[in-house]
Each structure stands twice: as structure tokens, then as C-alpha cells.
Write a structure and sequence with these properties.
alpha+beta, Cytochrome p450, 19 helices, binds protoporphyrin IX containing FE
Length: 447
């Protein structure tokens, strides 16, 4: 027997869904405490359901995932990312995932680790030179730069700082434009009149030409570097032996670039922010780092031994999950934990609210890395922690990201002492990823 679905009723706004769009973080935490782990929010002309109940989430992402595709917001992303892993669906997606998955096995990651370490070391050494002349740094910007450098080097072996800068700037233009379309769909027609759409298209055209050039060069390179682009180029379908064409390569490369750095950058920035006033935690990381890392570049093994450092990052992503929500749309009508939903409803899974649910997390607002002690992890439901999503569409880059974040955090703690600018306002800004709205200002000293 289907049960009546709890509904959020606004008494403030006539725009359906405004409260959710204005602040999806606060809204989903407050309303799931009030209405439970499954409720409906009137949303423009659609039916939207918000999920924080773990059984309901499992139904959508695992048990009945065949009935779910990505939500309409992803169609906007397609304008920049094309039909890559993040945006593609069904057989095409399945084929691409099978082709690309082996690249991200832990063993392959070891090969990229040295590049990561070299980029991080160079970046932090340069930063150390600058801090004598700089008062405050913007931590978010530094983390974005370092992770963008890493993904560009591991993806394209790029040696040209100008092309790196161009790539970075293009993705900024694209993201801002797309985010606008997602959060203000009623303004989309205006973009065609005010020139925003034309500017976006022009930027993407130049950008695509550069990437396609790079692919062409790489196809003809007798000694290609061992980076992700070469691995994508060499990936072959097990049955047919076929590889990807240029358009597919372009879409997957841009997808990896765009999915692969802002998330890690924000996770690192939030984690460093959370521990900045916790000398107890910093000292524990420092002890672990000193015991495992020498003066040379850290090895893959060194980093794997940093158990406590890993727990600190895990806790950072619990409180500030970079991908704070997951959107889906059901193809056919469905019943989730006893609630009937019509076809083509929007399903929004609030990772942020799950991670702050007092049912699974005692004193959820408190930053406490011991929550990730193995004995605590063992007794917690698995989906209570899902920064990388769940089910078949779970993040393909999770090992890459964990390795990169541990490496950067360890090197940062080894190199610097730091303190927050206490006058600087800190506020989460849920854009495509969860960013600090005004950045995070910090003072740095060489350790
Ligand atoms: C802290 C870092 C990261 C976080 C929190 C994160 C989070 C996520 C989440 C939640 C999803 C699932 C989205 C959904 O189900 O709708 C996802 C998918 C994806 N991520 Fe990540 N990600 C991170 C880093 C990376 C990195 C480093 C890469 C690549 C180098 C990457 C590539 C991807 C791709 C390609 C997908 C789509 C997978 C598919 O649908 O088959 N991510 N990520």
C-alpha cells in the first residue's frame, strides 16, 4: 500500500522551489529533520523528491538504477562536456565506462603518482618563496591552481603554462555560464539575446580546436608520454578491439579535467580550514608525516601509510562534501520505500544532509577524524558516507582523488604552519561543487 508523501509547503515564496534553489544545504538538512528522509518539493512545473533516507537512496542508485537517468541539469553540462562519462547514459555510457575503468585501477594510478608529486612539490616551493612578500593567501585559489596543474599534467603532460592558463579560464567561463542556466532556467532565453550564449560558444570553439590538435599530435607521436590522454587513446574495447574517435576522446578528456580538480581543490580547502584552529589534529598529522616522509618526493607506499591523514580528509569531505547532491530522473513510474512517484520526476539525493544526519553521526557539526577509525566505519551503514556517490555511476576518480589529496595535505603540513584570517567571512556556496563563497584567507609561515 502506497503511503502519503510528505510535502514541503512554502508560505514565503510564489516561485516553486525557490527555498531549495536559494540554499540547498540548509534547506535539505532542515526539511529532512522536519519531514523525514523522503519528501516532495514543488519545483517549477516538475515534481521533485528529496531523499536522505538510505534505503530510498539505495533503491535509486543501486537496486533499481536501470529506471534512473541523470537529472535535466546534466543536459546543460553537455553543452561543455559533450557526451563524456559524467553526462552520457545507458549503452553508450556503459561501453565508455568499461573502456575507461581500467585506467583508474589503483595500479595504473601508481604510474601517475610521480607526476603528481613533482607538480605538488614545484607548486609548494614557489608558494613558499612568495609568502615572504605576501600577507594573506586565498587558500581556495591556491588549491584550485595546484589541482588544476596536477590534472593538466597527468592528463596532457602539458608543458606550456600559457595553454594551461587558457584551459583553466575557458572552463571558468563555461562553468559560470552553465551554472546560470541550471539555477535560473527562466533566464535561458535572455542568454540568446544578451550575447552570453554566443560568447560561450565562441570560447568553446577555440578550446575544442586546441584539444583536437593535441589529440592529433598525440596520435602521431612515436613516443607518447605515459599520461591519461595516451591511456585514453590506447583504450580498446575487449570484444571489438576498437578505440575512441576524436570526438569521444575530446569529450572524455574535458570531462576528466572538469570532474577531476575542482572537487579535490574544495575538499582540501575545506579540510585545511576545518583543522586550522585544531593544533591537536595538525600535530597528529605532522607526527605521521614525519614518520613516513623523508626529504625526497613521497612514494606511493609512503602516502598509503598515512592512515590518520586520510581520516582527516574523509572527515573534511563528510562536513563539506564537494559533490553535495546527486540528481536523477526516473524513466518509468516507481515506488520508493512505499511512496509512489510518477514518471519523469526529479530526484535529489542530498549527500550534505546525509553526512550531517544525527542518526549516523554523533554531534554531526563537530570535526572529528576518529569517526573514520576502522572499528567505527565497520558499524556504520555504508551509505551514511558517500562523497563519491554510489552504485554503478560512482566516481571513477576516487583513488586518484584520495591519493592526490593525501599527498598535498601531507606536503602542506610538512612545509607550512598556517592560521586563518579570523576577520574573513566563511560561507559555503553550493555551485557545481561546494565552494567557500568568499574564499578562505590564511597566513602562511614556513615550518
Ligand atoms: C574529492 C574529489 C572528488 C569527489 C568528491 C567526486 C565526486 C563524484 C561523485 C559524487 C560522482 C557521482 C555523480 C553522480 O552519481 O551523479 C562522481 C562521478 C565522476 N567523477 Fe568524481 N569526484 C572527485 C574526483 C574526481 C577525479 C579526480 C576524477 C577524474 C580524474 C573524477 C571523475 C569523475 C567521473 C568521470 C565521474 C562520472 C562517472 C560515471 O558516471 O561513470 N572525479 N564524482
Amino acid at each position: 500500500m502506497a503511503t502519503q508523501i510528505p510535502v514541503f509547503k512554502s508560505n514565503q515564496s510564489l516561485i516553486r522551489g525557490k527555498e531549495f534553489l536559494m540554499d540547498p544545504l540548509k534547506f535539505t538538512v532542515e526539511q529532512s529533520n522536519k519531514l523525514g528522509g523522503f519528501f516532495r518539493v514543488p519545483f517549477y512545473f516538475r515534481k521533485m523528491f528529496i531523499l536522505t533516507d538510505l534505503e530510498a537512496i539505495r533503491h535509486v542508485l543501486n537496486t533499481n538504477q536501470k529506471n534512473y537517468k541523470k537529472s535535466p541539469a546534466y543536459d546543460q553540462l553537455k553543452q561543455a562536456l559533450g557526451n563524456g562519462l559524467v553526462t552520457s547514459e545507458r549503452d553508450f555510457w556503459r561501453h565508455q565506462r568499461r573502456l575507461i575503468q581500467p585506467i583508474f585501477y589503483k595500479k595504473q594510478m601508481e604510474g601517475l603518482f610521480k607526476t603528481m608529486g613533482e607538480v605538488a612539490k614545484n607548486y609548494l616551493e614557489n608558494l613558499a618563496l612568495q609568502i615572504q612578500s605576501k600577507e594573506d593567501i586565498d587558500l581556495t585559489k591556491e588549491m584550485m591552481n595546484i589541482t588544476a596543474d596536477i590534472v593538466l599534467k597527468t592528463l596532457f603532460s602539458s608543458k606550456n603554462p600559457a595553454s594551461q592558463k587558457e584551459m583553466y579560464e575557458t572552463m571558468e567561463v563555461a562553468q559560470n555560464y552553465i551554472m546560470n542556466r541550471v539555477t535560473s532556467p527562466h533566464l535561458i532565453p535572455l542568454n540568446y539575446v544578451n550575447g552570453h550564449h554566443r560568447r560561450f560558444k565562441k570560447t568553446m570553439k577555440t578550446f575544442d580546436a586546441n584539444i583536437l590538435n593535441l589529440i592529433e599530435e598525440r596520435r602521431n607521436d612515436p613516443n607518447p608520454p605515459a599520461d591519461l590522454l595516451t591511456m585514453l587513446l590506447m583504450a580498446r574495447d575487449e570484444e571489438t578491439g576498437e578505440g575512441m574517435n576524436d570526438q569521444q576522446l575530446r569529450d572524455e578528456a574535458i570531462t576528466l579535467y572538469s570532474a577531476g580538480h575542482e572537487t579535490s581543490a574544495n575538499a582540501l580547502a575545506w579540510t585545511l580550514y576545518a583543522i586550522a584552529n585544531r593544533p591537536d589534529i595538525i600535530e597528529k598529522i605532522r607526527e605521521e608525516v614525519d614518520a613516513n616522509l623523508g626529504d625526497d618526493l613521497p612514494t606511493f607506499e609512503n602516502i598509503r601509510n598515512l592512515r590518520y591523514t586520510q581520516q582527516v580528509i574523509e572527515e573534511g569531505m563528510r562536513l563539506y562534501p564537494p559533490a553535495y547532491g546527486i540528481g536523477r530522473e526516473n524513466i518509468e513510474a516507481d515506488e520508493i520505500i512505499g511512496y509512489k512517484i510518477p514518471r519523469k520526476s526529479i530526484i535529489y539525493i542530498s549527500i550534505y544532509a546525509v553526512h550531517r544526519n544525527a542518526k549516523f553521526w554523533k554531534n554531526p557539526e563537530e570535526f572529528n577524524p576518529s569517526r573514520f577509525d576502522p572499528e567505527q566505519v565497520k558499524v556504520r551503514p555504508r551509505l551514511a558516507y558517500m562523497p563519491f556517490g554510489a552504485g554503478s555511476r560512482m566516481c571513477i576518480g576516487n583513488h586518484f582523488a584520495m591519493m592526490e589529496m593525501q599527498l598535498i595535505l601531507a606536503m602542506w603540513i610538512k612545509k607550512f604552519r598556517f592560521g586563518l584570517d579570523e576577520n574573513h567571512p566563511i560561507e559555503p556556496n553550493p555551485l557545481i561543487t561546494l565552494k567557500p563563497k568568499y574564499g578562505i584567507k590564511m597566513k602562511l609561515w614556513n615550518a
